[in-house]
Amino acid sequence: MQISVYLYILVMAVVTYLVRAIPLLLARKEITNTFVRSFLYYMPYACLAAMTFPAILGATTYLISGIVGFIAAIIAAYFERSMITVALIACAAVFVTEQIIRWVM
Amino acid sequence: MGSRKRAFIGGMKAGVPIALGYFAVSFTFGMMAAQTGLSVFQSALISLTNLTSAGQFAALSIIGAGGSLLELALNQLIINLRYLLMGFSISQKLDRNYPSFHKFFVAFGITDEIYAVCAARPGKNSPYYHYGAMALAIPGWTIGTILGAAAGQILPQIVMSALSVAIYGMFLAVIIPPAKKNHFLIPVILGAMVLGAVFKYVPGLNKVSSGFVIIIITVVVSAVAALIRPIKPEAEAVAADGEASLVTKAEGEEAEHAD
Fold it and tell me: Which of A6, A51, A47, A21 has its CA nearest to residue B165?
């Protein structure tokens, strides 16, 4: 039996929306528990770090260009460049590295 | 009125790099959706209604293989479960002076990147800040999908490869600057990254799905950090009856986080 693509889309959209909406709707009052507040403070750093590494190494065509892009982004972020600047510097570093790799190989 | 407009414009400014980063990723998604056999309209509909990267890519393989709806639902639940944590975090950052129907709309726009910019801001967030970011991010995500699905491989591989790191650059731009002020964030960030590498390369552990890995690492690292270095509670005393008393202390929050 063939399932309609639109049924697939409906199911994924509903599940994804519920996962996002339920915590917002349930958390009616502000949390005062020190542990939970501390947990929520550290959460974005742990979460974004885990999403960045090692995924960034596998995102590019070559491992080495991913490493160069990663290092370039860390340096740019350390000097507190804006999000878009850091993103573009990382992209440029990957691009230049891959051009060099192609030229050498 | 003025403050809503200001928040909306502030959100749009944060939305510019998000939309640009989305464009590259959603272009790739559009190309893959077309390869899976979806029409341009169907691909765009997925992006418009789901607004998530990893989940959509995973769904393509299930749709392509003709998997069951239950399999798809469970897969989406697991991959997107991190939004549960993020939604919880955002619920604490959202300005409670606005009516709660806004939550229904703010929830739709919870993505890794919008969460990143909203969680990192000092003080409380107006829902209009979320709307401003969504006003650029959603079209960026959807239009990128349409173009990718319609055009196939227009961009050369080397450009796609370069653009694919944009999103990670944005994440690093969010987490590194605060770590210069609060040095305890350095082991938090490094710990999460090292655990990420462990889950990626250690045999056995590398079988765990990437959606679960993010959740496990986030929970473990944040919990350990919260136990070792709790954030000092300033306003615990007024919290005896919870509900209404805490609205005013938003301004103090960043200061206590600074060290």
Answer: A51
